[in-house]
Design a protein that fits this description.
Elements (H helix, E strand, L loop, with lengths): L2 H18 L1 H6 L8 H29 L7 H4 L2 H23 L10 H6 L21 H13 L6 H11 L2 H7 L6 H15 L2 H13 L9 H20 L6 H12 L4 H10 L9 H18 L9 H5 L30 H5 L2 H10 L33 H4 L27 E7 L5 E7 L7 E3 L1 H7 L1 H4 L4 E3 L14
Parallel strand pairs: 3-4
Antiparallel strand pairs: 1-2
Length: 488
């Protein structure tokens, strides 16, 4: 979540709070200051808040893009909740404004004049939401339905009952399913629903059960702290909407529960934030701290490249974000399809050498397959096999061919590589002559040989070969022809 998205979400929650407290703030002025002009001004302020909320909503949708439906903002039906609160508060203010207007003499008019002078409202189109029977959904559904349908004098009771039954689902629908669609049964159906769901004890339990189910912060991140901030704001506004706001003597416990959701670092920052006073902090001070802390964490968060997709990670491949012309809609350099080169089936089917040729001809990066040279590659990852500066899919093209196995033959053949030394099969042996003297010699193990090579001094001095009746040929270090026999 970017810093802009976080700021917009915080602004939406603040606007929600101001909208839901519009009537309560007006009552705080006192009856002597409650004039027609004050009420009209409050209605204009309420309309401006709603207009700003819709403007922020459009910006949030643009920021999330295709991921909007998967965001927490969309899943919680936050927009519908604020819309219901706005409709309820404006309906209350509109009714109060009509009461404060001076009574004018009624002049009989015709149907055409009546429709011409009927009050025209500039309210945005409001879509009725469904009610499944969840207690926590009842206040918002009740306020919206009464404002849009229940208090609309141009709708008959039969039509109201049709609208009501079309909005009910599950247990709520079963409560009034036996009633026939008549004008008299609308009031009866509404009374049945109100008696069953106007249970403040159950509503309070549901609100706090939702809050206490919020998990603790898993890490010091702006997203985690925003999750706690949104849960706190929702719980406070839900209590205010049912007429049971968190009073001053209850806020200390509520603040304590909120702080218990912090991680150790955030809790230390909070204690430092309130260390200048010995009095218990107000709830507004806690929410201000969370808002400022969210902005700080967003500003300090490093900008990292987008995470690779699951399929890319499973194939142990990597790609740098730098240099891509359009990361949201890449084009394959091989088949020109709307996918990256590394995920191309044609590219995968080629050998490593052929892949390297494709990369060379397309002038791509050998390390990340991006649209730049290796020298400009900013990816910190290398080949997963040899850690060299090339892509894993090109590894085999960089591995040199292993030398062929050499086979020894009976005949001596000079090898292609000029060897400096040749190892012979020899053995150190001790031979005893006829006088009983021992002589250490090195014997050459030469399979298939017809002659035995031994030093001249051994033959001349000891005549060992003759004594052993061995056919001998002698070699000297001067290059004497070993084929000339030195003995018998």
């Amino acid at each position: 979540m970017s810093m802009e998205q976080s700021a917009l979400l915080n602004s939406q929650h603040d606007i929600h709070g101001r909208i839901s407290r519009a009537m309560d703030n007006l009552r705080k002025l006192g009856a002597d200051k409650l004039t027609l002009g004050t009420v009209s001004t409050r209605i204009r302020i309420l309309d401006d808040l709603w207009a700003k909320f819709e403007s922020n909503h459009d910006l949030i949708r643009a920021c999330y893009g295709q991921l909007y439906s998967e965001s927490e903002y969309a899943k919680t039906d936050f927009v519908d909740t604020v819309e219901n609160s706005y409709a309820h508060q404006r309906g209350l203010l509109f009714g109060l404004e009509n009461k404060l207007k001076p009574a004018s003499p009624r002049v009989p008019v015709g149907p055409e004049q009546n429709s011409e002078h009927a009050p025209k409202t500039s309210l945005p189109r409001i879509q009725l939401r469904n009610f499944s029977g969840a207690y926590e959904e009842w206040p918002s559904f009740r306020d919206l339905f009464k404002s849009v349908i229940g208090k609309n004098s141009s709708i008959s009771n039969v039509e109201r009952l049709h609208y009501l039954r079309s909005c009910l689902r599950g247990p709520a629908e079963k409560l009034v399913s036996s009633l026939t669609v008549t004008g008299d049964n609308y009031d009866r159906a509404w009374a049945i629903l109100s008696k069953h769901f106007e249970n403040k004890r159950e509503l309070i339990r549901s609100n706090f059960a939702t809050f206490t189910a919020v998990a603790k912060i898993k890490g010091e991140t702006a997203d985690e702290l925003s999750r706690i901030h949104n849960a706190v704001t929702t719980a406070v506004n839900a209590q205010e909407s049912i007429g049971r706001p968190i009073r001053s003597h209850e806020v200390n416990l509520f603040n304590h529960l909120v702080v218990e959701l912090f991680d150790q670092r955030t809790r230390l920052e909070w204690e430092s934030f309130v260390s200048d006073s010995v009095d218990p902090p107000e709830h507004e001070k806690l929410t201000d701290f969370m808002s400022k802390r969210i902005l700080t964490l967003n500003a300090a968060r490093p900008k990292t490249a987008a995470k690779a997709s699951d399929s890319t990670r499973s194939a142990k491949t990597h790609v740098a974000k730098q240099g891509l012309k359009d990361s949201s809609d890449p084009q394959c350099a091989l088949c020109k399809g709307k996918h990256s080169l590394m995920t191309c089936s044609d590219f995968k089917a080629k050998s490593a050498t052929e892949r390297k040729t494709v990369v060379e001809s397309s002038r791509l990066c050998f390390n990340c397959l991006g649209n730049h040279t290796v020298a400009k590659c900013q990816s910190s990852k290398n080949c997963f096999t040899c850690k060299a500066r090339h892509h894993t899919m090109l590894h085999e093209a960089y591995v040199p061919a292993s030398p062929s196995t050499e086979v020894s033959a009976l005949s001596a053949v000079r090898s292609a590589d000029d060897r400096k030394a040749i190892l012979l099969a020899t053995a150190r042996v001790t031979i005893t002559d006829r006088h009983g003297d021992s002589h250490p010699v090195r014997a050459l193990i030469d399979q298939g040989s017809e002659a035995q090579l031994s030093p001249n001094n051994l033959s001349y001095s000891a005549c060992t070969c003759n004594d052993l009746a061995l056919p001998c040929r002698f070699s000297e270090s001067g290059g004497r022809n070993p084929g000339q026999p030195a003995g018998r």
